[in-house]
Amino acid sequence: MKCIFTTTMIFLTLHLMGQQSELAIIPQPLSIDVNDGYYSLSEYSTIAIQSDIDLSFEVANLNKQIKRAIGTNLKLVKDGTETENQIVLKCTQGNGDSEDYSLSIDDKQIIISATDRTGLFYGIQTLSQIVDNAGDGHKTVRIPCVIIDDKPRFKYRALMLDPARHFLPVDDVKKYIDVMAMYKFNHLHLHLSDDQGWRVEIEKYPLLNTISSFRRETDGDGKPHYGYYTKAELKELVAYANQRFITIVPELDVPGHSVAALSAYPEYTCFPKMLKVRTIPGVSKDLFCAGNDSTFLFLRDLISEMVEVFPSERFHLGGDEAPLDHWKECSKCQSKIKEKGLGDEHGLMSYFFDEVNQILIDYNKRPLFWYELDVPKYPKGSTMYAWRGGLTSQVISKTRHEGFSLICSPGEHAYFDYPQAKGEETCDWMAYLPLRQVYKFDPGYGLSPNKQAHIIGVEATLWGEYVKNIDRAFYMTWPRAFALVEAGWSEMENRSWESFQKRLYPQLERLQKLNVKYRNPTELGKP
Ligand code: TNX
Asked: Catalytic center at which residues (predicted)?
């Protein structure tokens, strides 16, 4: 019997066949074609490579995951020395999208093929889920015969960590990356500067790593908060992520959310005074001064040191929540508005972004911004984040007309600092964002293909005001990130909440094996 399944039929039919838990894959692949029979994976299986490129990391990653299920690593053999009982990794290096892959399992062998190492890695992640789900602690694991063809809906699938609010040591960020990679996330956005902390080593301005990286006052837990990443650590982190096909996107949030940096170098504010690294959440009126030309020289220096460690072509410049009060009162800002014919402080914001973007252009980088509706003009070639709750459809259409690319991270589906269940409130103003609400996310908002063609992906933002360590980060991220990545990877017609819930439990068991402290979605009940 051979059947071709698409859409929600996949779950229903597999359920009837009693195989649904064996193929509980997240994110849901594009097509799954289940056949009769099983492949027996055991210590006698081998791995063979059909490629000229070095796939030693991919082989090690596959072996690490297989070992969890069968207790042993598989031998790597030269392709062609055996024809049966193999897992063949084929990297054709032809044309095609780098993330696409196919996975074919019959009773004799498993073949993962892709045109690029990225697709191959994703095929390995899918196979590992199937193996883990079928593994029952015995030395042989029977996995169902299947043909999977897969490709992502969106090219940008990201999570954001906010070590600015609470520093997260580099080894913890690596653990976070490990889990992201297992579920086909491909960008980690690091929010590295904010009012409450500066987290990147900058050699030219050492006070950034003493004054700005240190929050003397407690924030209710009786401890000071401090930390920054050295350049060597960041380079290592970037390489670590890169090996797992994850790009780290740095953020330098300007002109607002900058009190930590300005507390060390107040000469770049409109009204230099004693500023302290902010100890409470919220929005400050202290911005970088747009009327002071030396502000841009300072930012140029910061960016020039940051790009040394972050090769990402995209660089986030923040741009959110910058109250204009000080720019209104500042004589330098007012003269700049007159001199450049900018109209008012909103025009000055566009000027500020153009000036900083010029620095990025010099380094061959493209800017990302938190999109603010009242900024009259953003630099050409920018990518925007739709983040304000409730306004997303307006942002989608406005950015399309303005010619910008868009990443969707709306509050109502993607703010992972919001509590997951009633009774888990961290502070009173936050909305409640349960798993199901994340799952409802359609990044295209049901718009016609041409109206959503400029959307490049999704991101969940884990703002860190109340996320003080990596275990809390894991708790707030998983399982909601399963729902988010499915919104970014899977076509809407292949998604359903009923199917997702069933596929979720085997994944939670995997996280448990990996000692990831996810939140148990008790409100859903067991399947
Ligand atoms: C708004 S969303 C912010 C962050 C806060 C977050 C808390 C955005 C671009 N800015 O500074 O951490 O709300 O949810």
From this structure: 321 (proton donor)
Question: What's the alpha-carbon Rg for the chain, to the nearest Å?
Answer: 24
Q: Ligand 1 center to residue 93 CA distance, Å?
A: 41
Model confidence pLDDT, tens digit, residues 61-76: 999 999 988 999 999 9
Instruction: Please work out whether the CB of residue 195 comes within 6 Å of at least one atom of ligand 1.
Output: no
Distance of CA 371 to the CA centre of its chain: 18
Helix (H, G, I), strand (E, B) or coil at 97: coil
Distance CA 512, CA 518 (A): 8
Q: Which atom of ligand 1 is nearest to the CA of 465?
A: 12
CATH architecture of 9-150: 2-Layer Sandwich (3.30)
Domain ranges across the chain:
9-150, 156-491
Q: Which residues pair with 368 in a beta bridge?
A: 316, 383
Q: Which class would CATH give 156-491?
A: alpha beta
| DSSP assignment of 437-480 | HHHT--TTTT--GGGSTTEEEEEEEE--TT--SHHHHHHHHTTH
Q: How far is CA 350 from the centre of its chain?
A: 27
CA distances from residue 376 to 217, 317, 352, 372, 410 in whole angstroms, order as listed:
38, 17, 12, 9, 21
Q: How much is the pTM?
A: 0.95
Distance 174 CA to ligand 1 centre (A): 24
The Cα 59–Cα 121 span in angstroms is 9
Q: Which atom of ligand 1 is nearest to the CA of 162?
A: 12
Dist. CA 446–CA 220, nearest whole Å: 43
Determine if ligand 1 sits within 6 Å of the CB of residue 465.
yes
Atom 12, ligand 1: which residue's CA is nearest?
463
Which DSSP symbol is given to 55? -
Tokens of 511: 């996280």
Q: What is the mean pLDDT of the chain?
A: 93
Question: 321 CB less than 6 Å from ligand 1?
Answer: yes
Q: Which amino acid is at 343?
A: G
CA–CA distance, 525 with 354 (Å, rounded to integer): 51
Q: Is 418 in the pocket of ligand 1 (CB under 6 A)?
A: no
Residues 282-308: pLDDT tens digits?
Answer: 999 999 999 999 999 999 999 999 999
* Segments of 120-226 assigned E as strands: 141-150, 156-161, 187-191, 193-194, 197-198, 214-215, 225-226
Burial label for 374, CB within 10 Å (0-12, 13-18, 19+), is exposed
* Sequence-distant contacts of 509-517: CB under 8 A, at least 24 apart: 509/132, 510/129, 510/132, 510/133, 510/182, 511/179, 511/478, 511/479, 513/68, 513/132, 514/178, 514/179, 516/175, 516/179, 516/474, 516/478, 517/471, 517/474, 517/475
